[in-house]
Amino acid sequence: MKNYLLIFTIFSFFVGFSQTSSEFDYEKFSNPNPENELSLYFKKEIKKKLLRTARFQTKKKNITLSFFINNEGKPYHINITSFGSGDFNKAVISAFKEFSLDKFNSDSLDTRNRYSLQIVSKKGSKNIFNCSSKLVVETPPVCEQCEDLKFYPDIKSCLNLEVRKLFYEKADFSILDNTKEEETDLYIKFSVTKSGELKMTKKTKVPLEFLLETDKIISYFPKIKTISYKNAKPIEPLHSFTINYKKGETPKLINKEVKYDSLFKRNSTNELAQFFIDKLNTIDLNIASLSRIKNQVNLYFELDKKNKVFNVSTTSRSDFLDKKIIEIFNAYPTDKLNFKSKEPLKRYFLQILKYKEGKVVVETNSFIGSEKIPLFPGCENSVNYEDAKKCFSRGVQMHFVKKFDADLPNNLGLSKGRKRVFIAFKINTKGKIINIQVKAPHPRIKEEVIKVMQQMPLIEPGTQGGEPVNIKYSIPFTMIVK
């Protein structure tokens, strides 16, 4: 009988930036109190059974919530640090959006900052709402090239982009021509020190022969004058990005927008654009909170078997604008949309708004784009896009149940209880699993996970805009050793 349990969650994985390299003491600096207004509000709005499902990250003593501020002064990109607790996270985010931030008695909220607070801690073995009484404020490091930006995520993304550009311009990628892998991802992680210098971290994952080159290129970046602060104290935030390398090719920075503008004929004069122009006003455009970095609001949807639109969403930073765009789109006749192609299990996308020459304008697709996630064998008859994702997860789970050595965890001297394993990998354009990276509680488990992943069956590759693309995934799973 198998003496372990694997609990899987699978989601697309895109490398961006993490926050800081050291732990922040919310107990000391944010005055958490289980009887303050936010704690009592959550107790009223969130069911106890959901609170019990909230899981803490490894070695963490609390669960925190973070967010940014848009042009309306409203929170967006609300993130909860609870592991594998989807329903709890959704309930907290929904409730938090209705809570007035004025009750924190903080200074005026700034779009350039990131805000965070503790929401849950332990009392004995029980989860309790023990929310911060004041917001913790974090400012990003700002390099000279990014000083024009006014949204925190854009400022940090801008720095990533500038460092990446430096690699494309100056790095000697021919050093990698003798590597064994035909294709690999160069994962580059760096911190911005308190003196404003960029420093490569040990988490950087590149071939050994490219390590010195990576360190050298990062050191070329000019010193940053405006460093990062958290709670008014200097910190050293972490950034990361990935460069895809194919043997014999020099990586290039590709602007997909130029390609998509041509492929989907984006403009302000087509019928759909005019439909939106008639219904969106200047105020709507101003609250889009776009910039030259985050320069689009896109809309996604699916079609059922009767070609009816469902599961509509947008990338808007404003809930109000999100709802209005969806309402307008749902009022537009589906038969007037021009599709490049219609296939089962596709998700369709189009641009609605564009940041152009310093202002936000309506600019939509003349032809609708589409994307399709990789399909695990046997998932071809999934009902819809979301069902195909769940089927993929089940396929991977069953593969592990069949192939993973069930006795291994108990033969390694591991203590009883939950053991977490994180896997990152890529499904390439041929449907093969490549670039497998694993974090595990023991080297033998890591080896076993890599072996099992390498035995995965060939997968139908994902597509975007009708073309096969590489898709990155991460799998966090919990192994319960009995």
From TrEMBL:
**Segments forming domain TonB C-terminal:** 420-477
Give the Gene3D superfamilies listed for this entry. 3.30.1150.10
Which domain of life, per UniProt? Answer: Bacteria
**Which InterPro entries does UniProt cross-reference here?**
TonB_C
Coiled coil location: none
Task: Give one GO biological process term.
Answer: transmembrane transport
SUPFAM superfamilies to which the protein is assigned, alphabetical: TolA/TonB C-terminal domain
One Pfam entry for this protein is TonB_C
Q: This protein is called what?
A: TonB C-terminal domain-containing protein
